[in-house]
Amino acid sequence: MIRIGSAWRAPLRAAPLVRARTFSSTSVRASLWKSRWVRYPVYGLGSLAFSATAVLGGLLIYDSMTYHRVLVTDTDTSLERACEWGGPANRPILSRANAPPADGRPPKERLVIVGGGWGAVSLLKSLDPDVYEVTLVSPTNYFLFTPLLPAVAVGTVGVRSVTESLRRLLARTRGQFVQGAAVNVHPHESLDRHTLQAMDGARGLLEVELISPQWDGSADGERKPSDTSVMYVPYDKLVIAVGSVTNNHGATGLEHAFRLKTVRDAQRLRKQLLENFEMASLPTTSDEERKRLLSFVVCGGGPTGVELAAEIHDMIEEDVYKNYPSIVEREAQVHVLQNETHILNTYAEAISKFAEQRFRSEDVDVVTNAQVTQIHPDGVSFEQFNPLTGEKFMRTIPSGCTVWSVGVTMNDFTRRLSTTLPNQGHRHALKVDSQLRVLGTEPGTVYAVGDASTLDSDLKGYIFGHLDRFDKDKDGELTLAEFTQLIKVLRLKFPIANEQLQGIKPLFEKYDFDKNERLCANELAEMIADATKNMTSYPPTAQIASQEGKYLAHKLNRYASLRARDALPRDAEDLDEAIHKPFVFRSLGSIAYLGNAAAFELPIPGPFKTLFGGLIAMYAWRSVYLSEMVSLRTRVLVLGDYIKRSLWGRDVLWL
Amino acid sequence: MIRIGSAWRAPLRAAPLVRARTFSSTSVRASLWKSRWVRYPVYGLGSLAFSATAVLGGLLIYDSMTYHRVLVTDTDTSLERACEWGGPANRPILSRANAPPADGRPPKERLVIVGGGWGAVSLLKSLDPDVYEVTLVSPTNYFLFTPLLPAVAVGTVGVRSVTESLRRLLARTRGQFVQGAAVNVHPHESLDRHTLQAMDGARGLLEVELISPQWDGSADGERKPSDTSVMYVPYDKLVIAVGSVTNNHGATGLEHAFRLKTVRDAQRLRKQLLENFEMASLPTTSDEERKRLLSFVVCGGGPTGVELAAEIHDMIEEDVYKNYPSIVEREAQVHVLQNETHILNTYAEAISKFAEQRFRSEDVDVVTNAQVTQIHPDGVSFEQFNPLTGEKFMRTIPSGCTVWSVGVTMNDFTRRLSTTLPNQGHRHALKVDSQLRVLGTEPGTVYAVGDASTLDSDLKGYIFGHLDRFDKDKDGELTLAEFTQLIKVLRLKFPIANEQLQGIKPLFEKYDFDKNERLCANELAEMIADATKNMTSYPPTAQIASQEGKYLAHKLNRYASLRARDALPRDAEDLDEAIHKPFVFRSLGSIAYLGNAAAFELPIPGPFKTLFGGLIAMYAWRSVYLSEMVSLRTRVLVLGDYIKRSLWGRDVLWL
């Protein structure tokens, strides 16, 4: 029974002179209690009090049991054990973590995954836990939920809320962790006999530069070689998932710009943003300098650039404004420079327009058709193209903080591979076939996923390299039957060209210009040229890296299970193709944050292909990201950060 | 009325064939419902569900109203306004934020507070909001809850949970904020006529070095002068609350040690701790190097050192162990080096003993009587004294991470003041009188609180400087009446000597060696020497800084209110003494964290003077700190961090 009113009663009892009123007030209380307007709120408050007590009490009891050594360990990822030395530089070669099985079965294959981003983690999560000896090599010991990096850069969410321990993610597969950056790959045929013995039958060695305490965590080239040491990790299967670095796109002076690829980038950027306001508010700062300090230039009108511009604008309006209303009002300005005609140009036109209109109404300056040529310490120069007059002219805008968010390219490791391997030559990524095998490597050993890879689209090279095989009658031309066979193989080898290779008969008739019922080399070349022109390679997004990782996990699972049952097809021309279908990307749509608004592009035709709106869309956008996170921990922490922002705003401290 | 069971009922209704059973299962449900074992848990879960919905729904609605510019600003602390230039270096002199009152009343006095720690914040919180024009000068724009810094260093709580915006704390008094480090004080008599005009009647100028974006946040001397610029802040009243820096106590090689005074220190230390485990786990690391990497040496057995050692030990046992069980088991070792006979030697003996016994059982190595002489990059050398044999011998222990936590001393600013002002000369702090006025400055203008200050204990200097005043009959000796007068004044001027100056008559008789009923100079000198010997100066703690700040706020409030009513005593010999009693420290006790245990020393005699114990004491320790925090925000965030640790452990990421 719930008892209320005792607090009311106490003073009445203490004052006998008013006892006469007690009775009536008791009956008033009784009748009050009958009213739902009294009873339900009391029930509600009682529920809240009970729940708070129950939850906090439960947590306290649980908490009191957590202060001791945890004996069930996640995973002993220590690599401290005896190693043979060898390899080109005579350095330690990581030995197997476990002794081979006693029953004479072949030991598990060694799967080495390089990188700790979307591709690697999605692969890890879908991999059968017991079929490989897994080693993960990553320069950071955490996975970063990159889509929220713009939010981290302004303090909407905390950096520890969007990172998850790679060791924890690795625990399921009882894998080992090497904190280091991959430098090179040495296939077994290039190694001397001693090394081959030491690596115990592996298909090659991955050369790893161990990360030193002095390393500052940036992705590209700020490591000091003298502080690092080298180690070799033997692999039977190697998965390259190292991601990408920022591309300079022909601009100079990038050392004066911030990037937004790593945690460190976000931390540095946040500090600079806050410092600029502090500096601008000083009486020693000139008006011109103040204008410069409060001009924030984002180069790049893609999703990251747009989201960052939106987040910076949010931070200024919702938090910074409180401390410096006058200077924010007068001077603060966010600029977005985009080299295309619209921002978010990879999205549907309706979304681009919505974003531009939204930015206009929020007073974010969007400059389109602007090709950045140089970044100065105090400004950005760009060539602007006027689409009406066709004129080009140079402009320079002052900038207190420039962020470069334009495209991606290979890091040192993948660039080294790309130049040494045959059949490569893409400018920004490693070319892989439709089975995600890196071109030019021994089939079934080296795979690449995510930003580090791009699906090979060289139809021409393939067709003319294999024309003999399809031209059964050796007349130098293809009949419809021969052409049908060719297209079927092409669809398997180049799933990205599927759309262009629909309708075999119409295609054959379209390009059979002389109507001789055969396609000669010229006619074939014409067809290939047209198909290639309309093909678009997959964008470097978390979504595709995730799908590639998952695809590869399934294939590797299947391979290992067939191998364990000794059921691998023996005479297959192409083992990968024989056991698994090629990779095809299925878009789940795109989303973009636009400053207390959001836009969604769904992979469906019709009126609901694009959706956008204000706060409700923003909440939907947050829900999508919360559901995409890799662990419950990060979900709870990010939700907590949203609540924190709501109650106390973003903190604007120099930490 | 609560309705349950409708979900069960629905499928039954949809299936008429089993209607016959409906009755009996309804009655089973009804009788189940009568059982309290069913009803109460359902009520409980219902309450939880209702509460969760209500709280989250409420938050969501509130949240949706926070996405806009906040028009009621905390405080416009921007300093951007026209300033005269002047002063010794001809730099801007900050002008008044507000125009003088139109009704001809004198404008408010300008109160300048230097520093953003315990003393400054406690002063700010107790200051009447409308009586001064407040300017806060601090190199960081946040207040740091220093007692939890050891916990921050290992990730038990987050750094943003123990910091609070100084601007937010300043908002109540509508003060201004200058982000900079104080360099010097120029009293008005040293300044030229032009400057005096520009500073509008102020008592002096505070020279401030504005903090540049390049500054790394450390407390001592890593600023680059070329990146800074200088400004003058005029004051009518100046409060120095700049705290202290670490003291080297005669050891060399301190550049190889971490400290634990600032946020940056804690962040660096955390990174180093985690990196050492990572390095130690590599196969390229030799056994000797591994031993070194996992040896953590804390120099200093005071509260900070002990708490840090305990926290490091907690982190290793509860979190790091999971990832590296074998090397932690075999090699990890925390050492505490203490130059006294016991750790926590300022606490009661029972607490020291409990702490030592606790550390012994937890396998933390406590080395007492160890005077550190040199810190090497890879170890610590110290001279150990054996109290049994009286021998001294040198030892060196390898160290992968050395933390220096031994005493405090003046920073550059206070040292500069200390050397230029008369009557100073303390080695580690500015001497202040019992009204907290800095000795050697114009009375009523410059005050100091917290670690930066120490109460003057020079009884001898005072007595022999003022003997004439007390020796009314000018015979060179003091009668009992004269002596009584002297002691009364001494108690007022030197409250720290109160204990030693109890019982005037017995004191007089004790030192009247020749029993001539008069104290001659020698007898007086003897008395002073004895009293001074037993006096202990207040320790540099948050508690005393807080009390000093509050005391000063009350005095400044009283001064301003008297001044506003034009009621200041006109002919007072000493205005401060005339309007307010001297500062006396009242200890509230001490607490110390000892690794999932805690000890309390209460300011009461008897058996409850010392309390210590395990987890329950730890929860009490946490409660004390939660209640001592400066804002609800930090309380909630720290509580959240404790829950986070409980659920997912400390994160061991290199962030």
UniProtKB/TrEMBL annotation, chains A, B:
InterPro entries, per database record: EF-hand-dom_pair (IPR011992), EF_Hand_1_Ca_BS (IPR018247), EF_hand_dom (IPR002048), FAD/NAD-bd_sf (IPR036188), FAD/NAD-binding_dom (IPR023753), NDH-2 (IPR045024), NDH2-like_C (IPR054585)
Annotated transmembrane regions: 42-62
CDD domains: EFh (cd00051)
GO cellular component: mitochondrial inner membrane
SMART domains found in the cross-reference section: EFh
UniProt subcellular location: Mitochondrion inner membrane
Record GO terms (molecular function): calcium ion binding; NADH dehydrogenase activity
Keywords, ordered alphabetically: Calcium, FAD, Flavoprotein, Membrane, NAD, Oxidoreductase, Transit peptide, Transmembrane, Transmembrane helix
Pfam families from the UniProt entry: NDH2_C, Pyr_redox_2
Membrane topology field: Peripheral membrane protein
Residues of the EF-hand domain: 468-493, 499-534
Family: Belongs to the NADH dehydrogenase family.
Protein name according to UniProt: Similar to S.cerevisiae protein NDE2 (Mitochondrial external NADH dehydrogenase)
Source species of the chain: Malassezia sympodialis (strain ATCC 42132)
Lineage, top ranks: Eukaryota, Fungi, Dikarya, Basidiomycota, Ustilaginomycotina
